[in-house]
Amino acid sequence: MLNLDRLRTLRAIATYGSVSAAADVLHVTPSAVSQQIRTLERETGHQMVTRNGRGVELTSAALLLANRAERILGLADAAEAELQARNDMAVGQLALGAFPTAARGIVPSALRLLADRAPQLNVHIREMDFASPLTHVQRGDLDIGIVQDWDHVPIPWTETVRRQLLMTDYARVALPSHHRLAHRDVLRISELVDEPWISRVHRSTCHEWLLHTMREQGAEPHIVHSVTEYPTQLALVSAGVGLAMVPTLGLGHLPSGVRAVPVEPRMTRHIYAIWHPGGAKRPSVRVTVGALVDAARGLEVVDVVSPGPAVAVDLRRSD
Fold first, then answer.
1. Which residues have a Cβ under 8 Å from the Cβ of 303 and sit 6 or more positions away?
2. Rounded distance between C-alpha atoms, residue 128 and residue 248, angstroms
3. For a tag site, which of 15, 121, 133, 274 has the least CB within 10 Å?
4. How far apart, in Å, are the Cα atoms of 207 and each of 132, 186, 237, 271?
């Protein structure tokens, strides 16, 4: 009899193209993936993979089985959802993927809520880049994803996912508190074209927005540092080496000597929880989405102005 876990392993290799990539998706080691495939070969009497340089290729028998696995696993997931719905209990495993600022800013509060609301539910968190949760939910590798939909880079929504707005977030300009513009309540991009910038890495959303916005002003941004993590960007701002464009959810508690000021035109993103349409039947999906909504609704990020008093920035759900 075919084992569902081994079918999932085979499907992951077929989908992601390598043993290491499949291991990442399945949250196991590459050696565990290889062991599952060897066991599957013994059970079926067919070779599943062949070596191709440093990687592997699926055999024709493996490709046939991987195609059938999509339907088999889909039926198994549907049956699990129906059984959960009968009991109306959130139990078992749930995979949740989120981009970094949401994983840090929303998810921990949601997990605290779930500990009370669904103590038998085991949620596994995966921090991912911005686009990955949508792809992984569509493929069935995640039960729930948290994604961001920027005004200038909107998500092409399709019927392959359902969504719930969690919050609306706005970017701010982080600048040293001794900067000539730090006292202002709002800044216009036209006032910042000659400033040195600490940007996120090339092709990230904030990097592309900075390029697009500055070019609308007839200028190229003067990027002096490229940094992935927002806390590192803010540390460099505190050192006085440049300005940074940071979503409010990414600000956290600002380091001493940094002020975050709203900017016009506004850079806006909407943050959504997403899930596969079939997941709506599962109490585990419903209770987790509810916890994410409540966590985002109660969220406040503090904009620490140094020197001076702290000012609370309300990020409550906007819909």
1. 172, 248, 251, 254, 259, 260, 310, 311, 312, 313
2. 19
3. 15
4. 18, 21, 16, 19
**What is the 8-class DSSP label of residue 254?**
P
Q: If we measure between CA atoms, which residue out of 139, 147, 161 comes closest to residue 98?
A: 147
Mean pLDDT of 288-308: 67
Q: Which residues are paired to 259 by β-bridges?
A: 175
Q: What is the DSSP letter of 276?
A: -
Q: Look up residue 123 and give its two tokens.
A: 């949620």
Answer yes or no: are the C-beta atoms of 99 and 130 closer than 8 Å: yes
Give the integer Cα–Cα distance in Å for 147 and 229: 18
Q: What is the pTM of this model?
A: 0.70
Alpha carbon distance 96, 284 (integer Å): 11
| Cβ atoms 84, 282 nearer than 8 A | yes
197-249, pLDDT tens digit by residue? 999 877 677 788 788 888 888 889 999 999 988 899 999 999 999 999 888 88
Alpha-carbon torsion angle 68, 73, 75, 77, nearest 10: -170
Q: What is the 3-state secondary structure (H, E, C) of 71-94?
A: HHHHHHHHHHHHHHHHHCCCCEEE
User: Which domains does the chain carry?
Assistant: 4-84 (1.10.10.10), 92-319 (3.40.190.290)
Strand bridging mode 187-188 / 268-275: unpaired
Amino acid at 227: V
The C-alpha angle 17, 19, 22, rounded to 5 degrees, equals 75
Q: pLDDT tens digit string along 98-147?
A: 998 899 999 999 999 999 999 999 999 999 876 688 888 887 889 999 99
Q: Which of 7-11, 45-49, 164-168 has the highest mean pLDDT?
A: 164-168
Rounded to the nearest angstrom, the gap between the alpha carbon of residue 27 and the centroid of all alpha carbons in its chain is 16
